Amino acid sequence: MPQDLSGKDLTRASLAGSNLAGADLHGANLHAAQAGRTDFSGANLSGADLTDANLVAANLSGADLSGADVTGADVRDADLTDARLDGIRGLDQARLDPGAVPDAPAPDG
How does residue 104 score in pLDDT terms, banded at 50, 70 and 90? Predict the structure, then answer.
């Protein structure tokens, strides 16, 4: 049974390397969370606050990130294959690998 963490305050949580595949995290606050190499495959992160989160090398394949805020998040080397990104906010201010998200604005600097 998938974990239900919807709406939870996980600000600055240490989640690195965790298995949250299929978890319900919609509306959760993951501001500044340390979630590098975390498996979020198929997870519902819609409307989540991922601002300033470390998502380096996280598995976000098939995850629902619609309406999430990734301002300042580090998503380099993350797997975004088949992730739902409609309405996502802050892509222009997130750290992304070039070409990681088609049509995403290039980061400054």
Answer: low
Model pTM?
Answer: 0.90
Cβ neighbors of 68 (< 8 A, separation 6 or more) are 45, 46, 47, 48, 49, 50, 88, 89
Question: Which pair of structure tokens corresponds to residue 11?
Answer: 């600000």
21 in Cβ contact with 1 (< 8 Å): no
Whole-number Cα distances in Å, 94 to 24, 42, 51, 83, 108: 23, 21, 9, 16, 10
Burial class from Cβ neighbours inside 10 Å (0-12, 13-18, 19+) for residue 100 reads: middle
Please write the tens of the pLDDT for every residue from 36-45.
Answer: 999 999 999 9
Instruction: Say whether 4 sits in a helix, a strand or coil.
Output: strand
Q: CA 4 to CA 26: how far, in whole Å?
A: 9
- CATH topology for 1-97? Pectate Lyase C-like (2.160.20)
CA dist., res. 106 & res. 22, Å (int): 30
- Indicate the domain borders of the chain: 1-97
